[in-house]
Design brief:
By secondary structure, the protein is an alpha+beta fold. The protein contains 1 helix and 11 strands. Helix content is about 10%, strand content about 30%. It starts with a helix and ends with a strand.
């Protein structure tokens, strides 16, 4: 019985050990210090190169800080007030994240379109809702959406423009 057990363990262990010795990492680890204590991560493709950029939104001054992946250039944009919730996404369909916040005390979205610089406001949501922007219609533009925790319901305002 001992010989059979040892043969079984050897049959299972040897391929495992060979596999580990031949293992080659196929991943890359990247680190980037960006932001301060209290900042809120807001990654997205702000420069349209198809890669996420490192970005944070600073609640105490309503400013966005972005390192563009295409150039390494730092961009800042003041947009939002204390108490707002960052809700970046591509609301105009130009392939770049727009600066956007949702204001919980009045349920209003505030967006600066990256394509034109135009400011868009849209009331959608109630106090207590959680913003959940995304492309729910498949038109490659973020829609205004909230999730209401007290009833578990999603409310989506589809972007028709």
């Amino acid at each position: 019985m001992k010989v059979g057990y040892r043969l079984l363990m050897m049959a299972l262990t040897v391929p495992f050990l060979i596999g580990i010795s031949n293992f080659k990492a196929k991943a890359q680890i990247t680190t980037q210090q960006w932001g301060l204590t209290g900042d809120i991560p807001a990654p997205g493709d702000y420069d349209g190169d198809g890669k996420n950029d490192f970005a944070v939104w600073r609640p105490n001054n309503g400013t966005w800080y972005v390192i563009k992946s295409s150039t390494g250039q730092i961009t800042t944009q003041q947009w939002g007030l204390t108490g707002d919730i960052p809700a970046p996404g591509d609301y105009d369909g130009d392939g770049k994240n727009d600066f956007a916040v949702w204001r919980p005390n009045n349920g209003t979205w505030y967006v600066i379109k990256s394509s034109t610089g135009q400011i868009v406001t849209q009331q959608w949501g109630l106090t207590g809702d959680i913003p959940a922007p995304g492309d729910y219609s498949g038109d490659r533009k973020n829609d205004f959406a909230v999730w209401r925790p007290n009833n578990g319901t999603w409310y989506i305002f589809t972007n028709l423009q």
